[in-house]
Known about the structure:
Blueprint: E1 3-5, E2 15-16, E3 38-44, H1 48-57, E4 64-67, E5 83-84, H2 92-99, H3 101-125, E6 132-139, H4 146-158, E7 164-167, H5 168-175, E8 181-190, H6 193-206, E9 210-212, E10 217-222, E11 227-231, E12 236-244, E13 259-268, E14 282-286, E15 292-296, E16 302-309, H7 318-336, E17 345-354, E18 360-363, E19 370-374, H8 380-396, H9 408-412
Parallel strand pairs: 3-4, 3-12, 4-9, 6-14, 12-19
Antiparallel strand pairs: 1-10, 2-17, 5-8, 6-8, 7-8, 10-11, 11-12, 13-16, 13-17, 14-15, 15-16, 18-19
Amino acid sequence: MPKSRDITRQRNLHESRPVWADSPRISLRTQKTASHGDYDVIIVGAGISGALMAHALADGKRGVLVADRRRPVHGSTLASTAMIQHEIDVPLHKLAGMIGEEKARRAWQRSARAVEQLTRIVADIGISCGFERKATLFLAGDEYGHRALRTETDARHAAGIEADFLNAAALADRFSIDRSGAILSDISASANPAQMAAGILRAAAARGVEIASPLEITDIRATAQGVFLATADGRILSARHAVFCSGYEFLEAVADKDHAIISTWALATPPGTALPDWLKDCIVWEGADPYLYFRRTRDGRLIAGGEDEESEDAYASPKTLTRKAATIRRKVEALLGLRLPEPDHVWAAPFGTTRTGLPLIGCIPGLPNVFAVMGFGGNGITFSQIAAEIVSAQIAGHGDADADLFAFRSRQS
């Protein structure tokens, strides 16, 4: 019987205090333990990934339990900067060279559709989470210059994805930014991730999904007939399927050579920061290493981040947090030609990434009926929606045409 002990790596998922921690409407009614001993699906993790998974599985017929050892939405979701992009960390033309043109196009097309679906979900549920559709400005940098961005624009057009290349003169005229070029696209969004996750979980609970917190899963046994999960309070729960949406505290059983933990840093300025008017409609990132990204919130904060390091624990250093926040602030000021006020929130977090920039989604090899989602990189919310669609389809028994793009087996073969 396949088994895994110490099933997740436990981490402090953010340092200092992310801006979303002070948000209203992020508390949820929960129960301390499971009401039943047996479920159709047990979801481990009550962040944005678990919320979207619960939303996809809550059909009023299945028995669904969401379990989290923390308060819901108080894990890695709080550390998100919530730039909900269709753009994957690895550009389309480069991804095509890694996995083939057809697969790369499908991955990018699926990502664009996921943003559209997230827009519908927020509207259908009626969540108040500052959700706004945005354009994306992808700036030339030291890793992808203007020639690479022209190639990328052509690759997106060939895939049926709208994108406009801006040369240096057009970029300076429209955005007062001095770079050799940029790509302007219109399939992204932004939101308050904590309010978004909490709103989706409330809607799932209204359709019968149980949310138990704090409830820690300590062990798992998987069989062809179902899954057995041990809890910290000494119970054994059973389910036909288990789905681990535990963010960067990933399953030890699926530690993958193509998956790594990286540290990142972010800051938020006070509300009402003086910013260019065009930032109301645009989120920005750059083709550099390390890259910078930023956006404006509805109340006028600047949210900026980047300076990623290939380190599992660099995020935990207070000195590094201070230094990285200063670097991010300085880079934004230089790019926009303005002075920013002192940030009132700075934070750091780990996140999972893969060589291709595509997440790992699907059934875990050697653990029947156990699914996991991990390696979301800078596209956590978008990829969480794709994961919810793929896993819910697989649980329903009819599969998903794009599952092969993200499957664990394809990464380890």
